[in-house]
Structures are given as C-alpha cells and as structure tokens.
Amino acid sequence: SVPSAPTSSTEIQSDVRVRGAREHNLRNLDLTVPRDALVVFTGVSGSGKSSLAFGTLFAESQRRYLESVAPYARRLIDQAGVPDVDSITGMPPAVALQQQRGGRSARSSVGSVTTVSSLVRMLYSRAGQYPEGQSMLLAEDFSTNTVEGACPECHGIGRVYEVPEDKMVPDPTLTIRERAIAAWPTAWHGHQLRDTAVALGFDVDVPWQDLPKAERDWLLYTEETPHLPVHSRLTLAEAREAIAAGTEPTYSGTFVGARKYVLDTFANTKSAGMKRRVAEFLTAAPCPVCHGKKLKPEALSVTIAGLDIAEFSALPLHELMTLLEETVASAEKSAEADGTPAAPDGAPGEEISAEKLATTVRLGGGLIDRLRPIVDLGLGYLSLDRSTPTLSGGELQRLRLATQLTSELFGVVYVLDEPSAGLHPQDVTALMEILDGLKDRGNSLFVVEHSVDLMRHADWLVDIGPGAGERGGQVLYSGPTDGLAEVEESITRGYVFGGRGLESHEPRQAREWMRVEGIRRNNLRDASVELPLGALTAVTGVSGSGKSSLVSQVLPALVGDRLGRPAQEDEPAPEGDELLLTDEPEELDGSVSGELTGIRRVVSIDQRPIGRTPRSNVATYTGLFDHVRRRFAETPEARERGYKPGRFSFNVAGGRCPTCEGEGSVMVELLFLPSVYTECPDCHGTRYQSSTLEILWRGRTIAEVLAMSVEEAHDFFTEEFDIMRSLTALIDVGLGYLRLGQPATELSGGEAQRVKLASELQRSQRGDTLYVLDEPTSGLHCADSDRLITHLQTLVDAGNTVVMVELDMRIITAADHVIELGPGAGDDGGQVIAVGTPEQIASAGNTPSAPYLAAALE
Ligand code: ADP
Ligand code: ADP
Ligand code: ZN
Ligand code: ZN
C-alpha cells in the first residue's frame, strides 16, 4: 500500500498555541508563541501576565504531568484547579521558578535549596582530612539535620536555651503572692502553683530576695513535680494552723518549677499566644559543645584546606570557588606526580591515597560547576550556610535558576517571575547570558518581566493589557520586540522605545542633614552616611553591596532608638520556634547625630508579608473592613436580629462558618501526597454561616463584598467616605485589581509592600515621618513605578523624608539625593562610593551606576 502523508497531529509543532484562555481576567484570548525562544510577558500589574504564564501555561503543563505520572492524583488536580482554557498545544513540560510567597523554613539554607550541601558532605566524607586514628564518616554524619550528624548537646540547632533567674524573676523585691515568679502562669494555674508552694512549706509572703538561696533555686529549677493536698489562698502560718487543726484540704495541686514550666510549655503548647508568652523568659546562647556549628565533634574534626565543614560553609561562594579551584589543582598535580603524594591543603603528615586525590578532583570539580552559575548570577557574596528567610525573593529565585542550569534538562519550558528583581543593571547582563545558555541547550523560556533591558533582549514579546483586572486580559501584541513600536494602545511601548517616563526633576534642598556614623552591620564596616531631611534619597549599588543592610536594617533601628521608640513594625510578631531560630546577625552599631528636626516616627515599608495566615487580608490590614462590618451591623435586619459588627468577622466565633472557622477552606490529607487545602464543604468558601449571609447591605452579602476587587468596591461604596479613603489609596498605589478578601499569604512581596504604602497614604499627613523602603518598584511595570514615585513625592512635599533602595536608574533620576554603595558585593562592598544629585553621580562617571544613570538622564 501507499504510505500516507503524515497527518498534522504527528507533525512536530514548533510553537505553543493557546486557544480560549479565560483564567481570572483573561478575555478568552488566543496566543501563539515560539518554542526554543526567550519569550517575555509584559503589561501593567494586574493585567494578567501571571494568569497567562503561570495560571494557564504552567498549570496546564503541570496538570498533564500529574495525570501521566499518577492517575490517582486526579483528586489533587481537581483541587489544584484546572485552568480555564479551551486548548493548549505544543507545550513542553514546564518548570516554574516563582518568587516565593509567604513563609519559608528557617532550616533551609543556600546550600540546601541549591543541593550543593549534599555534594559538600560527600566531599568531606570521602576526600576530607581525618585526624589520625579516626575512622571515616558517612555523608550523613556531616548533616545537622540527621541524628547521625547533629551535635548531641543542642540537637543541631547550634544554640541552647536558658531560662535565667533575672528573666523569671524580674523584680526580686516582690513576694511570690505578688507574682515575683513572673514566668509562672497567670490566673487559676498561677494560684494553684502558689498554694502548692505553701503546702510544701515555702513562705510566699516575704520578698523573693529574702528567701534562702536553696529555696529560690528549688522553686525555679526543680525537675520534681510533687502532687499534694492544698489549702486555698492561705499564708504559710495559716496553712500550718489548718493542717494542725485537721481542716479538710481544698483540692489537690501539682507543683511545677518555673524553668520546667517554661521549657515544657514552649515545647508542647499548641497555643501560639502561650508559646510567645513563655518565649519571653528564654534566652538562646551559642551551644557550648559545637559553638554554634551544629555538628557533632567527630564531624567537625574533618577538614578540607584546613577548614571544618562549618567554616567551609560560611565562606562567601566566590571565595569558596577559588579555594576549591586551588584544592583541585593541587590534587591533580599530586596525582600526576605519581608515587609522591602530598597533602593538597598542605596539612603535614597524612599520606593521601591516589583514590582520595581522584575523589577530590572529581567531587571538587563537580562543586565548582555548581557554584559557577550562582556566582555568575551575582550571588557570590552569599554563603552556603545563609538561611533562606534572610534572602530576598529575587535572590532565592536566582539561586533556583542557577540550580536549574546544572540540572542538564533540555526540552522544557522555564516559566520565570521577574528574574531581574534585585539586580543592578550591571548584573542584568549576566542574567541574560544565563537565560541564553538555557535556551541554547534546547529549552524555552517564558519570563514575566518589567526590565526594559530584558524586553529588548527577548526573541518574542507578549504585551498584555491594556489596563488591570477587567480592563486588561487581552493580548495587545505578540511578536518580535521591534513590532511593539506600532501598537498605540500599549502602555509598555513608550518605555521600550523611549521618549516617555517621568518628568525631569529639580532636586530639592535638604531641610536639615542627619548624619549616621560608625555603622556596622553585615558588610558595612564603620560606614557613615548623611541623609537630607525633607527630601527623597535613593540608595543604589550592585547586588550585595549593602543597600538593604543600610536602609532596612540599620536606619529604622538607629533612628527609632534615637527617637526613643522602635520603628513601627508592620510585621506580625514571629512566633515560637521561629522567634528563636531566626538567624539575625547580632551586631548592629552606629550613631545618629544632627538635629532630627521634624521627625517623630520611622516607618519601614518593606516586602515582608502583611500577615502570616490567610486570616489577614487587604481589607483587615488597611482597617477598612471594620467600617464595612459596621455598615452591615447598622442594617435594620441586623439590628432586629441583634447582630453586632463582630458577627460579620471571620476571625472570631459567632457569624463565621464553624466548620472551617472562617478560613473558607479545610485541609485534606492525601495518601502519598502532600496535604492540600480544599474549599470548605459547608460554607463553600464564603467563610460565613448562612444566617450571617442573610444580611444584605445594598443588596450584597459580606462574603460578596470580600470577593470584590478594590476597584469594584470603589464603585460600590462611593458615598462611604471612611471606606473610600482606603480604597482610593489602594488604587493610587496600583492595587485596584486585588480582591478585598485576598489572603495575605497570596500576595507577592511587592504587593504586600504597596498595601503598607497605601495604609500610610490614607492617614492624614502630619509630615513628621521618615519612610524607609526597600526596592519599592520591584515587581512593578514602568507605568506603575511612575505612579508610585509620584506618591512618594507627595509624601516628601508634605514634609516627610523618604529613603529608598532603588536599582532602576530611570526612577533614581527622580530622587533629590543619591547614595551609591559598593564598589562590589559582600566583603568587596559596604562602602559609600558616591553621593550627590543624580546628575552629579552620573557625571562623576567612575562607579557601576554612573553610565546607566547617565543614559537614563538623557
Ligand atoms: P499580573 O501578573 O499581570 O500582575 P495577574 O495575572 O496576577 O496579573 O492578575 C490578573 C487579574 O486576575 C487581576 O484582576 C487579579 O486580581 C486576578 N487574579 C489573580 N489571581 C487570582 C485568583 N487566585 N483568583 C481570582 N482572581 C485572581
Ligand atoms: P544589597 O541590599 O545591596 O543587595 P545586602 O545589604 O542584602 O545587599 O547584603 C550585604 C551583605 O550582607 C552581603 O554580603 C550579604 O550576604 C550580607 N547579609 C545581608 N543580610 C544578612 C543576614 N541577615 N545575615 C547574614 N548576612 C547578611
Ligand atoms: Zn551544639
Ligand atoms: Zn466553612
């Protein structure tokens, strides 16, 4: 028979075709983009880029993958949601690298997320130098997270918890009845402990300091928990009389020493509030056995190049690479000089076997290959032991990106979320090379980006818009970047082809100068800066130069101290373990001089979440939800039923759904798979009881209000001025597309930051605040950045002072004063290398920012 021509379905399709995409705000859009290319998705915030790249393309690829590997995962897929799209063809398997939202584990580190640590442990196990007579250890013996490796004293935490007497008993002039032992519980349990102390023969009515030391120590430190009959509320003398008289005891009580109470409660309580309370009495000190290195002594005795694995992991990665290169080179040399092996690290004594040398070369070489892309992406200043919660979202994403580079995958699509975030223009060039490398290896790249440089570098540009939310969701342009020049409707066009942006800005004169001297923090070593009050200052410099250390860490703390009040903490207090596990560097030094004329508050508007649970959201954070609840409570129907504003809260019992306790979702445990959250079967995600939902305000239920976007709410609440103030501020910072009830945990760092900014903008301005912002424009389209800067200028015009970290040179031109840190990253940075107006920095010409700033000023 005659062979038939291949049908179209067997032809290899060289592009990805999307038909009828309707996820979130996408307007039934069709799109065709090439494979094996760098495709950049752009558009204003809320236009639908993520809904398309992540919510549709990646989600569909993920769904197919799950379906092919695990038919039983059907339920999981249903719960994760199937993207609303008619068809997608030609989509290769996808790997998504999204900026992390919400919490991260304090136990993960640069070494663990890049998986470099496991290679390092192998290297120490097989190629390390062992002290004479010590047998070889396994790789697990070098892990702080295993029973085999962890320090037996602190169990791999590196710290030990102490409960010092002066914390448990802050005021020794008090008697026990007057609550001298502050660490003991309050209320009935506290009374019971006091009564049992009396029954045990302690005098609870003399000042603590007058009790004999042996008694004080026993009360605080005993591990015994005697159970005995007690008489309620008596003094020691009265109790003795009662016993002598044979009076019936009131009840039986159990005594617990204060230290034991604190430690047991800290370890076992399920209540976050209790945990936080007892944590107050704990102090963490470095472990006396491992000195904070977290490993058992045998593991720490093994060295490479004279360093134990903890010291090795604390080196900046670029130094680590140099050290490994030297180690490998010398091992190679020794191996060649057959028969006369020498220790590669110069350590005398041990004869190194040929096998060990070969292992050093092989594993060391592998490590170098892993580290190179990380260093190339501008992260050479990090160390393997740096914990991930101290990294910015952008740093974490770049680490993941670098890890992908060594995975040798090909034929996949990488879906990335603003990989340029946190990068100085000088570092963006390195990023482009990395992306090109992935592409050359036969992969496709779908990148959501705001960097104009990356747009120009793209093979293909997809512009979504024209506006946000309902006013977006359409493909305005899809094609090679040059073609965008013809698309009048596109807001992006003006920025890519120049000729548009911020109006030229005449720098303001400072009202006064504040001087901060002797700054020590991370890589800042005795730095000094002068900041103009009543002006907008931009702090710039290459990644890792010390900008965040200065602006987010030092300034709010020092100025807050000087003002005698801490910087306003927007962040919910850390809880329990988190509280004690944070790897905050202890050192923070410096002094503020000069008159702080007109500054009464410091407010740090950072990218940390506005809440750690889905219970906080935009409406609760800005306070507008209080007003909304009051409106519902004021309706005749609510008054008739006696519903108070609290009835309309999903955070307290009453009107909320009892099944999910107002969360709207419940957790489902799945066999073999991580548990997932699924819509609550009783309230169907509305969070409320049906009776609460019977109350309508202007025809809407409270749940319907929470489901509105800020813009919809703005149309709905027109005459309600208290509510409108918050809504207008949210729209002003470009967040009109957020839903009022959108959980805090779903917001990106940039969105959280803008919610905080909006909360400030809605206050009446007294012009007495120092605002500090870390990269406020990250995650923003140029048009959104312009709007944001305009608002910051308004704050400054009202008399406030703004200091911000900024990397977009176009935005820096709008500052009154610029401070550039550098010259390099980590130990190569930390110095002020230029100060002045944007023009002065640009024309000095000898710093990393100067040429880019000069270009932006043209
Ligand atoms: P971009 O990535 O361009 O900033 P998004 O794709 O995140 O935009 O958002 C586009 C629209 O979809 C916005 O109106 C946003 O509020 C809405 N949206 C985003 N995530 C969700 C969600 N999980 N549920 C409902 N609507 C959403
Ligand atoms: P930038 O903001 O300019 O990118 P950073 O201030 O974040 O720079 O970092 C400056 C230096 O301080 C880097 O070497 C970085 O690794 C180090 N560093 C920053 N934060 C911490 C931290 N929490 N713990 C330890 N080192 C830190
Ligand atoms: Zn220890
Ligand atoms: Zn429910």
UniProtKB/TrEMBL annotation:
<keyword id="KW-0862">Zinc</keyword>
<keyword id="KW-0963">Cytoplasm</keyword>
<dbReference type="InterPro" id="IPR041552">
    <property type="entry name" value="UvrA_DNA-bd"/>
</dbReference>
<comment type="similarity">
    <text>Belongs to the ABC transporter superfamily. UvrA family.</text>
</comment>
<keyword id="KW-0067">ATP-binding</keyword>
<keyword id="KW-0238">DNA-binding</keyword>
<feature type="compositionally biased region" description="Acidic residues">
    <location>
        <begin position="569"/>
        <end position="589"/>
    </location>
</feature>
<keyword id="KW-0234">DNA repair</keyword>
<keyword id="KW-0227">DNA damage</keyword>
<keyword id="KW-0547">Nucleotide-binding</keyword>
<keyword id="KW-0228">DNA excision</keyword>
<keyword id="KW-0267">Excision nuclease</keyword>
<dbReference type="InterPro" id="IPR003439">
    <property type="entry name" value="ABC_transporter-like_ATP-bd"/>
</dbReference>
<protein>
    <recommendedName>
        <fullName>UvrABC system protein A</fullName>
    </recommendedName>
</protein>
<keyword id="KW-0863">Zinc-finger</keyword>
<dbReference type="Pfam" id="PF17755">
    <property type="entry name" value="UvrA_DNA-bind"/>
</dbReference>
<dbReference type="InterPro" id="IPR017871">
    <property type="entry name" value="ABC_transporter-like_CS"/>
</dbReference>
<feature type="domain" description="ABC transporter">
    <location>
        <begin position="508"/>
        <end position="848"/>
    </location>
</feature>
<keyword id="KW-0677">Repeat</keyword>
<keyword id="KW-0479">Metal-binding</keyword>
<feature type="region of interest" description="Disordered">
    <location>
        <begin position="564"/>
        <end position="593"/>
    </location>
</feature>
<dbReference type="InterPro" id="IPR027417">
    <property type="entry name" value="P-loop_NTPase"/>
</dbReference>
